[in-house]
Amino acid sequence: MNKKIYYNNKILEFPESETQSSQNQTIKIYDEENKQTLKIIIDDFLDQTNQNSFQILNYDFETTLAFLKNNFSFIEAAGGFIEKENQYLFIHRLGKWDLPKGKLEKGEAIENAAIRECEEECGVTNLKITKKLSSTFHIYPYKKGFAIKQTYWFYMITNHAEILKPQIEENIDEARWFSENELKITVLNDTYLTIKDVIIEALDPMNTDKLKI
């Protein structure tokens, strides 16, 4: 499970014990008696003037997630990491390499939504889900406040042989297959933190420690 919450280029992490922090990471210790409440920590994390990622000690991921769902708009989305003969499908949207994904429609099954969004955004067909990947959680400004979005990810395979068709109306200007080596050189250096973690899990599921990258 990917126990991270993302906001812009920052990450909120929940280690079991304090780990070595980088220059751009702050340790936050939940302490109700000293008024270091979860709300204060979250407000500090969302402060645009603070560019640091946070580690929260003495508090767990699930309780924090429940707090965010109760206080922010909660949006669900689904998408796919798609393979065809050791080639991997990515889209280029708003200047970044990304994976196809989109919001669930009312009453729609998560797996159906993931396949539908991939088909719509890439023009890819014959998709088959082979396994479920970890969800990602992303905070972003929404209306007059914030939303917390949970994106359900699936590993998919296809034998699609036609030309890909990027969905221009969704600001996608390219849909492209990458070899693993090309992916590591090009995509990982020009994508979002959330997408980077999905890639790392999909390509090396036995080494989830790499999610700390």
Structure description:
The longest helix is centred in the middle third of the chain and has 13 residues, at 110-122. This protein is α/β, with parallel strands linked by helices and 213 residues long. Helix content is 24%, strand content 36%. Strands 1, 2, 3, 4, 5, 6, 7, 8, 9, 10, 11 and 12 form a 12-stranded mixed beta sheet that branches. The protein folds into 2 domains: 4-71, no CATH class; 78-212, Nucleoside Triphosphate Pyrophosphohydrolase (Alpha-Beta Complex). It is elongated and about 60 Å long. A hairpin with a 2-residue loop joins strand 10 and strand 11. It has helices spanning 38-45, 61-71, 110-122, 180-187, 193-203; strands at 4-7, 10-13, 25-29, 53-57, 73-84, 87-93, 96-98, 101-103, 128-132, 136-142, 145-157, 172-179.
Distance between the termini: 15 Å
Q: Can you tell me the residue ranges where pLDDT is under 50 for at least 5 consecutive residues?
A: 208-213
Secondary-structure arrangement, i.e. CATH architecture of the largest domain: Alpha-Beta Complex
Please count the helical segments. Answer: 5
Query: Share of helix among residues?
Result: 10-25%
What is the structure about, briefly put?
The chain is α/β, with parallel strands linked by helices and 213 residues long. The protein has helices at residues 38-45, 61-71, 110-122, 180-187, 193-203, and strands at 4-7, 10-13, 25-29, 53-57, 73-84, 87-93, 96-98, 101-103, 128-132, 136-142, 145-157, 172-179. The two termini are 15 Å apart.
